[in-house]
Design a protein that fits this description.
- With about 230 residues, this protein is an alpha/beta fold.
- Helix content is about 40%, strand content about 20%.
- The strands form three sheets. A five-stranded parallel sheet has the order 2-1-3-4-5, sandwiched between helices.
- The protein is elongated and about 65 Å long.
- The relative contact order is 0.09.
- Bound molecules: calcium ion (CA).
Length: about 230
């Protein structure tokens, strides 16, 4: 959980559901503002800056799809739509409302909370300033890397590559994923660039670079960082 509570707006005209959602999201540690009217929701979304809006589709005065389309032109606040019928889903997606996700009613609270967390994870800027893995430590602000307290001399790309690997410790990252995360989508280079930098990085962080224990090659897939 972040230091300051994340602000959620819950828009749902069915009172019982609105109260249940509000109560449970508050219990999860979110700060929740709620309302049951479309026009009021649009005003609230314009007045305050929310981290996420949970928005019912069928609402009095202004429906959720219209709100979604209007807000998309004005701000980037993530939106999860609540829709009553699965038949509405095609319409929602077809209309290109710009919603980040949707949930079909009736849904379980667990499902909603999981979607809320997933959308927030995707959209919240990183607030981590340090990454740690075993005796490795990365200061993301100062862009310095340490191994057992000793500063490592890493190039810009080596640093970014190591940070990407540690962030995804335990999961395999393909060469393409690493290329995109570290070099960016527009980089004209090929995946051998990744292999070369992995080799350099291993020489700096592995006890025996020829038998790597931390940056492991997963044949035919990519690389995995072992924390
Ligand atoms: Ca409704």
């Amino acid at each position: 959980m972040a230091d300051s509570k994340q602000q959620l707006l819950v828009v749902e005209d069915e009172q019982t559901l609105r109260e249940t959602l509000t109560y449970n999201l508050q219990r999860e540690g979110y700060e929740v503002t709620s309302c049951g009217d479309g026009g009021e929701a649009l005003e609230l979304a314009r007045e305050q800056s929310f981290d996420l809006i949970v928005l019912d589709v069928m609402l009095p005065t202004l429906d959720g799809l219209s709100i979604c389309r209007i807000l998309r032109k004005e701000q980037r606040t993530p939106i999860i739509l609540l829709t009553a019928r699965s038949g509405e889903v095609d319409r929602i997606m077809g209309l290109e409302t710009g919603a980040d996700d949707y949930i079909v009613k009736p849904f379980s609270l667990g499902e909603l909370l999981a979607r809320v967390r997933a959308v927030l994870r995707r959209t919240t800027p990183e607030t981590t300033t340090r990454l740690e893995a075993g005796d490795l430590s990365l200061d993301l602000i100062g862009r310095r890397a340490y191994r057992a307290g000793e500063e490592l001399r890493l190039s810009h790309k080596e640093f970014d590559l190591l940070a990407a690997l540690i962030r995804n410790a335990g999961s395999v990252l393909s060469r393409d994923q690493l290329l995109q995360q570290v070099w960016g989508y527009d980089y004209p280079g090929d995946t051998r660039t990744v292999d070369v930098h992995i080799r350099w990085l291993r020489e700096k962080i592995e006890g025996d670079p020829a038998a790597p224990q931390r940056i492991v090659t997963v044949r035919g897939v990519g690389y995995r960082f072992e924390a």
